[in-house]
Amino acid sequence: MAIIPDANVEGPIAQLPSLNGNQLTLMVAGVTVIADLNTIIRTPTRQLNLVEVADPTPFPGRADPRFVNGTALADGSYDTTDGVLRADRLFLQPGEHVLVGPIANPTAAGAIVNGVNAELTNDPRIPSNPILNEFGFPIQPDSIPADSTTAAEGYYDGNILRAFVITVDAPDAILMTNPIIQPQISLMRARAVDKDGTYRLDIRGAVTLHHSPGFQPQEIDVYRLDDNNVSTFLGRARSRRAPGTAFGKYDQEFRNLQGEPPIRVRVINTSAMNQTSADLYVDL
């Protein structure tokens, strides 16, 4: 009998998680998963605590309690003595449904995609962002060209796609924050691969270039964020202008970083006078 590291499970949540003191137990694809105060628990858009996961209040449009019949991804170690997976990280969502197609009637509340109403969620457990452009920046809905290609991600309740995020290919749409006065940076992906005491980190995001004469490349510092927001410098990325737009993209891989992968990553555009930052939880 032993503790086996690097165990994980992804699958449906069969029943309402039970909370006993500071220990949460849930069944995922037949595997008993235990989370505690040290477990990083999150949904697509925010971090949750143990009490929030155990709360049976249904999500809007769903009859099932909380995350029941939703999807979980647990990563941690498997205890062969007790037959349980002790989660270091736990990702939860009530559904995993996607619409990709032309947009119609975009508003602050959502849009119609492929003829289906995609409504941005206002549930505090999975709060949504405003509609974003393909570079990850909030845009004014009334400036989105008709039929722009759109991706809406969320859960379908039988009538409405309750969207966590709606992203539109609309580089000319007006940003909600003036990018000349306030340069912006997004972090759309952060993924780590853990191996033998080191890890690889892949990040991807974008910057606004409206403030930069000639749309010059931007230097982006990358930090790991640990408990209590302690930050450690990891390296630097450099943006490249997306042709025909006022945006720059960055896509950087860092290899052989020492230690365990971070919980979150922060990026800062050091080239802008008003240095802006963005944070994102790391996927494993």
Quick tags:
mainly beta; OB fold (Dihydrolipoamide Acetyltransferase, E2P); Immunoglobulin-like; 8-stranded mixed β-sheet; 5-stranded mixed barrel; flat
- Report Rg: 20 Å
Beta-strand content estimate:
over 45%
Based on Cα principal axes, name the global outline.
flat
Q: How many helix segments?
A: 1
Order of helices and strands: EEEEEEHEEEEEEEEEEEEEEEE
Structural class of the helices, strands and pairings? mainly beta
Q: Give the N-to-C terminal Cα separation.
A: 26 Å
Regarding CATH, which class of the largest domain? Mainly Beta
- What is the strand tally? 22
Kindly state the percentage of residues in helix.
Answer: under 10%
At CATH level 3, the topology of the largest domain is Immunoglobulin-like
Are there runs of 5+ residues with pLDDT below 50, and where? none
Q: In this structure, how is the largest beta sheet organized?
A: 8 strands, mixed
User: Mind telling me which CATH architecture of the largest domain this is?
Assistant: Sandwich
Mean pLDDT across every amino acid position: 94
**Could you say how many structural domains there are in total?**
3
